[in-house]
Design goal:
Elements: E1 6-14, E2 20-29, E3 34-38, H1 45-53, E4 61-68, E5 71-72, H2 78-84, E6 89-92, H3 96-99, H4 106-115, H5 125-132, H6 138-141, H7 151-162, E7 169-173, H8 181-193, E8 197-201, H9 205-211, E9 214-219, E10 222-228, H10 229-234, H11 239-246, H12 311-324, H13 333-336, E11 349-358, E12 365-375, E13 380-384, H14 391-398, E14 406-411, E15 414-415, H15 423-430, E16 434-437, H16 451-456, H17 467-480, H18 497-509, E17 515-519, H19 527-542, E18 546-550, H20 554-560, E19 563-566
Parallel strand pairs: 3-8, 3-9, 6-7, 7-8, 13-18, 13-19, 16-17, 17-18
Antiparallel strand pairs: 1-2, 1-4, 4-5, 9-10, 11-12, 11-14, 14-15
Length: about 575
């Protein structure tokens, strides 16, 4: 009998604020096996990962057991945990920007994998690791600071640190969210070829399908379905799994269907099935009895028989879900994605032959090369390309956050000069003409502000609103993106990365700007929430807002955008 690398038994996690993030989760991971955890943002996936690493706050109440290579992690001493981390357990954090010290060079960040254990770094080990992960000129680039790297490149640096000692287990929390498909596959293939067991936390079902052996679907802190990947994706048994699969963008089917309703309040002690208020098959018994995981599914109605995943049956199920919740089926693709007849009007924004160069001499980087683009009212333009190709730099120039070294930027037919102390750029930004959505949502939010203030701040540029009105508006907007259950007084550091990303998106949408520039706006979101956001962006465009969106997810761009451009080595 094969001895499992990780044994998680009846794990529970309750935070100081009363939130029961994890409620009786049990699973094993065998050597060389990849188990994927999927579910909506805030369902407890990251809490499980942090519990396995001993990274939960001391104020959290933890129950159950987690054993890794026979070592009990729950309640282990700091010395034991430090010995396990890095050599036995590798960790790839969800936010690569947050995991790196901005004052230290990238090389030092990776070097910590050896320094923490007082080990000498083998010759050329770091550049070799980076080269394997697709970082070109790694000998030079590893001497740069984190802000000089793109999100995708920085994510690969954290992966290099995680696999430095070829650990028995790698816990990877959204390790490919900022990577294009080819690099994602290369990265996870390297992990699997090393014989490493992987606990993969991901919202990207395509990545899970290609690389995971088993999949565990989590809802409200519990596993509702667990089985082989092929069985779960071809014959899902739990209604929540079916809904998640329906929310994945697919070519030729228009915008995906978001789940109706919102996740439950995890601080409440409710009986019955947590998914019952959102389930089309709900019965009275579902509100009285809590389903137990049997035959790989925790459902009183569907049980072990499952649900054949053919296209027509899933559409029928979701029509039922939408009608029961007071909604309506998604509009046909031809209506949703009809290109607006706006090309006779003046552009909302345009850039002409812009160029941006960083560094000097041998360290010169041509981030953007002779790029031109016009964006019209109501148009959605997508930009794709590999990590580090210049997409984010182009978007920052378009947002007037950075100034091009050559070329011109025009907003509302006005030339945007280089003077950041005033002039046309200052006036346009003051009245919210352009609103950016940044790739790093946590750092884009003021950590000291309650989220109601962050969400409604753009409205204050046009009119004064009382605190009472702003709080009411914020509550309504949070409900529109499935966050009606969270406290409007919460600070960003109290929320998950996905929740922060949704807040940054509604902050950009709330003032109905002329132009939105969105850098990977769905990278930290699961399929169901991503579908909701895509509908919000499509609705904003229908009202006249122009949108330029950068993403590695081609399926998302094809479902949402009127046209998709490719960037390669700074050339659009």
């Amino acid at each position: 009998m094969v001895k499992a690398i990780l044994n998680c038994t009846n794990l529970s996690v309750e935070y100081k604020n009363g939130v029961n993030a994890v409620r009786g989760v049990s699973f094993n991971i065998d050597p060389s096996e990849c188990l994927a955890l999927v579910g909506e943002s805030g369902c407890g996936k990251t809490s499980i990962a942090h519990a396995a690493l001993g990274l939960l706050p001391s104020t959290a109440s933890i129950g159950g057991s987690i054993r890794i290579n026979g070592n009990e992690v729950i309640g282990a001493s700091t010395a034991v945990l430090q010995q396990l981390r890095g050599r036995t357990i590798g960790f790839v954090s969800q936010d690569p920007f947050e995991s790196c010290n901005p004052l230290d060079k990238v090389k030092l960040h990776i070097s910590e994998a050896w320094h923490a254990h007082r080990l000498k770094i083998p010759n050329n080990k770091i550049p070799d690791l980076l080269s394997e992960l697709g970082i070109k000129n790694s000998n030079i680039k590893m001497k740069q600071f984190p802000h000089q790297w793109s999100g995708g490149m920085l994510q690969r640096a954290t992966i290099a640190a995680a696999i430095a000692h070829k650990p028995s287990l790698v816990i990877a929390d959204e390790p490919t969210s900022a990577l294009d498909a080819d690099i994602s596959d290369t990265t996870l293939t390297l992990l699997k070829q090393a014989g490493t067991a992987i606990l993969l936390i991901s919202h990207d079902i395509d990545v899970v399908k290609r690389h995971a052996d088993r999949i565990a679907v989590i809802y409200a802190g519990k596993i509702v379905e667990i089985n082989d990947v092929k069985k779960v994706l071809s014959t899902p048994k739990h209604p929540y799994t079916i809904a998640l699969l329906r929310a994945i963008p697919q070519s030729g089917r228009g915008l995906p269907h978001p789940l109706p309703g919102t996740p439950p309040d995890l601080s409440a002690r409710n009986k019955g099935c947590s998914f019952a208020p959102r389930c089309p098959y709900v019965k009275s018994s579902c509100f009285r009895f809590t389903p137990v995981l049997r035959h790989g599914v925790a459902c009183l109605v569907m049980g072990k028989h499952g649900f054949k995943r053919d296209h027509n049956s899933i559409i029928g199920l979701h029509k039922h879900i939408l009608y029961e919740s007071g909604g309506s089926p998604s509009e046909p693709e031809s209506k949703k994605r009809q290109i607006p007849s706006i090309y006779k009007e003046k552009p909302v924004a345009e850039v002409h032959h812009i160029t941006k160069i960083y560094g000097k001499g041998t360290r010169t980087v041509n981030a953007v090369v002779d790029a031109s683009l016009r964006i019209y009212k109501g148009e959605i333009v997508g930009i794709c390309g590999s990590s580090g190709c210049g997409k984010s730099t182009f978007l920052r120039i378009l947002s007037t956050i950075e100034v091009p070294d050559d070329g011109t930027v025009h907003m509302d037919s006005q030339y945007i000069n280089n003077d950041r102390r005033g002039g046309s750029a200052h006036k346009l930004l003051r009245r919210g003409y352009v609103m950016p959505i940044f790739q790093d949502p946590v750092r884009s939010l003021d950590q000291q502000w309650p989220i109601w203030r962050t969400i409604t701040e753009p409205l204050m540029a046009r009119q004064f609103l009382s605190k009472k009105v702003r709080r009411k508006v914020a509550s309504k907007e949070l409900g529109n993106i499935g966050l009606g259950h969270i406290d409007i007084n919460a600070r960003p550091y109290e929320l998950s990365l996905g929740q922060c990303q949704r807040i940054s998106i509604i902050r950009a949408l709330i003032s109905n700007p002329a132009l939105i520039t969105a850098d990977e706006p769905t990278s930290a979101l699961d399929a169901s929430v991503s579908a909701t956001i895509l509908h919000l962006l499509a609705d904003a465009a229908a009202k006249g807002t122009a949108i330029v969106i950068v993403s590695h997810d081609i399926a998302v761009l094809n479902a949402l955008c009127h046209r998709v451009l490719t960037m390669r080595d700074g050339v659009l």
